[in-house]
Amino acid sequence: MSVIALHPKQQPEANGAPATILTPSQSPVSAPAPLALSLRGITKRFGDKTVLDGIDLDIPQGQFVAVIGKSGCGKSTLLRILAGLDSPTSGTLTVAGGNASERRSRIMFQEPRLLPWARIGRNVEVGLTGIAKGEVARDLSLQILQEVGLADRAEEWPSVLSGGQKQRVALARALVAHPFILALDEPLGALDALTRIEMQQLLERIWQQQHFTAVLVTHDVAEAVALADRVVVIDEGRIALDLAIPLARPRRHGSAETARLEGQILDRLFGRG
Ligand SMILES: Nc1ncnc2c1ncn2[C@@H]1O[C@H](COP(=O)(O)OP(=O)(O)OP(=O)(O)O)[C@@H](O)[C@H]1O
Ligand SMILES: [Mg+2]
After folding, report:
1. 48 lines ligand 1 (CB under 6 A)
2. How many helices and strands in the chain, by DSSP H and E?
């Protein structure tokens, strides 16, 4: 099951060399190096259908980008390419800076995709496959579970958790190896409104601590404006709007400035103005 995605070129195993397993004295994970991501002329076709049509996008390290667009416009396709799960038909994706182990990427989906036969701590350790094992992996797993407020549940089974708690475990698994980029494909889409706001706050807090690049696909314009530094609207395979969100954090839902930015995005989505 591909719950974790590494860029194919970034996998330590990709060149035939075994993954390095580190001892407790060595830190297998650290804050991501300054890596810039650059997409040039990214086109994706399925048969004769062009889903992405020459996307150019530069994302500096640590930026929080939200991607919005109508259903079927190619958001998940773009995210899969960014996360290294899929290749473009043409065009290039470049990651500048860092070494192979610093170029880890992770993806999170709407469903938590936890292993039902593994305890919560072990589920988080899956994010360290090929990076750390044993005591080191257990310690790192507990540290990140602490961050998401679930350290006391490490020995329990996924089935006893609520939907929001399961997504917090999925977030912990995605972040335990300190990826430089976290791709999020509507990860909060199935949560109730209050849990969703709590998860937004948690995601923002951990993003501010860990400085990874976040690319969040969402259908929720308010969520995009609440969380992102920048909102990209995709329409007919192209970037129809690339809007900076220059609001201080933490952001208040329902302010006049928030409403104005949301209006601008909605106008573009519905072809108004
Ligand atoms: N593996 C595939 N084979 C053929 N067509 C595909 C494949 N993956 C996606 N598509 C098509 O590409 C288009 C974009 O799909 P994608 O999943 O990227 O859309 P999306 O913007 O994420 O939609 P949604 O908001 O509904 O999740 C759709 O028309 C879809 O049918
Ligand atoms: Mg999608």
Report:
1. no
2. 7, 9
